[in-house]
Design goal:
By secondary structure, this protein is an alpha/beta fold. It has 9 helices and 14 strands. The strands form 2 sheets. It has a 7-stranded mixed sheet with strand order 3-4-2-1-5-6-7, sandwiched between helices. It has a 7-stranded mixed sheet with strand order 9-8-11-10-12-13-14, with helices on both faces. Helix 5 packs across helix 9, helix 6 runs parallel beside helix 7 and helix 7 runs parallel beside helix 8. The protein starts with 9 loop residues before the first strand and ends with a helix. This is Succinate--CoA ligase [ADP-forming] subunit alpha.
């Protein structure tokens, strides 16, 4: 199957009746995802996309038995939406919203530590188990069922990698975008460990970028693991200058450990095979695939 979601996952959408919530919920429903309702304060008791709308997440969970929520609300209220989902004890929360104030996310991060919820994002494209369940904004037609797990902080780089793999007849088990904001929920280390325990994932692709030290932390964690699976790594922004933000809010080099070269060195030291281009990711994956016995 995959990690974190499956065909039984019941999803509610926070910001359900808005433009983005409507469009992407419909796409997910068309893909086969079990969207069971949505939350828009003040519109409780109505219907949208032939599904019930609730005023609160707690009410939505009680009625629909949802165990996942996807969030499409504006940045200034997105943290509040995440906190509401945590308070309702939603198992998996996917926040698509970009640009949530860092102060707000610091509060979310602290609350998250004392909860049982898993947060993907913010600024995440979502998560997909090809052919089974899709929650988020990724284009559904570029994926194929298979054995490659992809974790990325960049949505577009993950899309391109998945598309190139699919064109090469190499399928994916789960593709997850952890988001590119400075403060987020689930990270590379968390996802790699989930992939290693997933019997349907044989190879892991980790797509990182300059800024922060999550990739280095993941490399150190992986190096010390007894149980391993092959990882192909890629770091975007190798030519980016110090102090210059490149794309994501978290993609800014503030110290030597946040450069592309530092991350590449740490990954190679851990035994991760590092690609220097997106096309090389696919070529290395093909090479590893040929060595595996299915």
């Amino acid at each position: 199957m995959g990690i974190l979601i499956d065909k039984y996952t019941k999803v509610i959408c926070q910001g359900f009746t808005g433009h983005h919530g409507t469009f992407h919920s419909k796409c997910d429903i068309d893909y086969g995802t079990k969207i069971v309702g949505g939350v828009t304060p003040g519109k409780g008791g109505t219907n949208h996309l032939n599904l019930p709308v609730f005023n609160t997440v707690i009410e939505a969970k009680k009625i629909t038995k949802a165990n996942a929520s996807v969030i499409y609300v504006p940045p200034l209220t997105a943290a509040e939406a995440i906190l509401e989902a945590i308070d309702a004890q939603i198992d998996l929360i996917i926040c698509i919203t970009e640009g949530i104030p860092i102060h707000d996310m610091l509060i979310v991060k602290q609350v998250l530590k004392n909860s049982s919820s898993i947060l993907i994002g913010p600024n995440s494209p979502g998560i997909i188990v090809p052919g089974v369940c899709k929650i988020g904004i990724m284009p559904s037609n570029i994926y194929k069922m298979g054995k490659i797990g992809i974790v990325s902080c960049s949505g577009t780089l993950a899309y391109e990698t998945s598309y190139q793999l699919t064109k090469s007849n190499i399928g994916q088990s789960t593709c997850i975008g952890i988001g590119g904001d400075p403060i987020s929920g689930i990270n590379f280390s968390d996802v790699i460990q989930l992939f290693i325990e997933d019997e349907n994932t044989d190879i892991i692709i980790m797509i990182g970028e300059i800024g922060g030290e999550l990739e280095i932390e993941a490399a150190k964690m992986y190096k010390n693991l007894k149980k391993k699976k092959p990882i192909v790594g890629f770091i975007a922004g190798i030519s980016a200058p110090h102090g210059k933000r490149m794309g994501h809010a978290g993609a800014i080099i503030s110290n030597i450990n946040e450069t592309a070269e530092a991350k590449i060195n740490a990954m190679q030291d851990a035994g991760i095979e590092v690609a220097r281009s997106l096309s090389e990711i696919v070529n290395i994956t093909k090479k590893i695939t040929k060595k595996l016995i299915y």
